[in-house]
From TrEMBL:
Keywords: Signal. The keyword Thylakoid does not apply. Residues 40-94 form the SusE outer membrane protein domain. This is SusE outer membrane protein domain-containing protein. Residues 1-23 form the signal peptide. It comes from uncultured Muribaculaceae bacterium. It holds the Pfam family SusE.
Amino acid sequence: MKKILLSAAVCTLALGFSSCSETWDDNPVLNTHEGEKTANFLNNPVMQDQTIMLTNGNKEGTFHLTCSQPDFGYAAVATYKVQCSLTEDFAKYEEISQDFYNCAEVNPVNGDVAAAIQKLSGVKTEADLPLPYQKLYMRLRAFVAQSESNTQYLSNVVSFAGVSSDYLAIWVSDVPVNIYLLGGMNNWGNDGLTAEWQFATGADENTWVTPVVTIPAGTEFKVADSSWGSINLGAGAPQIVAGEEYALAASDAGNIVMSADFTGVAHLKLEKGNYILTLDPK
């Protein structure tokens, strides 16, 4: 009888351990911590010893990084961000905005890397280019998105022997571009294109602004490039009102017409593939 009772107790204990194991597997616990922990989980890149020129022609290409997952307590769905620096201590760095989720394919776009290098190098205009070949350092910031603040890891640092860029990859304000206000107020550009009606890059990316212009009420015009080519934009509304945003359309949309005399600046922005015009009175 004692043997039977002992066997039953052993079975019960075994079942208890089995139950605990199943509970752990079904309910893994996320490891959390304060601040950013460092861990060695970024692999050395294959191209680490090569010199790399980043150009307008290869800006859609990518660097290739691979890593393992830091210790989140289980195989979590993690987010990886690439950080770039010109010094190994990362005293100054740029973090690329793109998110990566696959440890085998952490591939920052060449154009984003070029922009990071140029920001770190203090590039302001095309006159600052090409940059000299310089050592580029990269590391990863990894985290679990639903608990980013207390799951962050910084990886070990890897490097590329020499990286340069020869085109302007960053957004620089106050640079004149080939976009104009062309219409009845300037003979549709037939008398020559002048800076008075020309857009320049704005403070924010994909925005442009003109100097102060004067357009009489009823004057017809368009937003166009110098050859009336890919940018040849009109308004869908019969007349537009100063201070309001208008989505511009292709050349068959008709001319833009002011509802009243206007003096001020024209703001143009590209948003989700659409050009938006605002005439801001001054």
